[in-house]
Amino acid sequence: MAGVPTPTRPDVLLFDLGGVLVDFSGVEDLLPLLPPGARADEVKARWIACPTSNAFGTGRIGTDEFVRDFRETWQIVAAPDDFLRAYRSWTRGWLPGATALLDELRPHFRLAVLSNCNAVHWDVLCTDLHLLDHVDAAFSSHQVGTRKPDSEAFRHTLDQLGVAATQVVFFDDAAGNVAAAAALGLRGHVVDGPGAVRRALISDGLIAG
């Protein structure tokens, strides 16, 4: 339509991982470890606000301290090694179609990841799922020192990539994170898996339908 500007073709496509490209269980697999009677909605709210998880996810505590404090705070009776093994399994694998989509996009765009993550799950992503075989750069909150939607997480990523915000399209399953990115000038889409990412790219005219 006349008078409607065409969006600038981006240099970088920036992705969240859990819920966008990767199957991450979180609260679903935490519930069986808790004392009887825990409700999923209450656990989710508590999980989001958990100081121990947030400290681990921003690199302020190490794995041993996280396991000790988390087990104590949440009254988890599983032995430390058993809990850590279970916790590691929360990163379940790629969502169907994720790696095929990334490999399709990579010849045409720089691909990067910005995830609220921690040392344990980051190891699964990089070692077991071979994340860095499918993207050009990857940033985790435990390395950056802050979590989305903090604007500093995005600024750090842009600085490391050497791009302006307007050169980036961002995909996340959390509306608050997309809003924070948009406030800095990134184009953003709230998505819930690889299929939704593909539809957003088609809508933006960045790939063929």
Overview of the structural elements:
The protein has 209 residues and is an alpha/beta fold. It is 45% helix and 14% strand. The protein contains 11 helices and 7 strands. It has helices at 27-30, 40-49, 51-57, 63-74, 80-88, 98-105, 119-128, 141-144, 151-161, 175-183, 194-203, and strands at 12-15, 22-24, 91-94, 110-115, 137-140, 168-172, 187-190. The protein has a 5-stranded parallel sheet with strand order 5-4-1-6-7. Helix 3 (51-57) packs antiparallel against helix 4.
Key features of this structure:
2 domains; 5-stranded parallel β-sheet; 209 residues; alpha/beta; two-stranded antiparallel ribbon; Rossmann fold; elongated; disordered N terminus
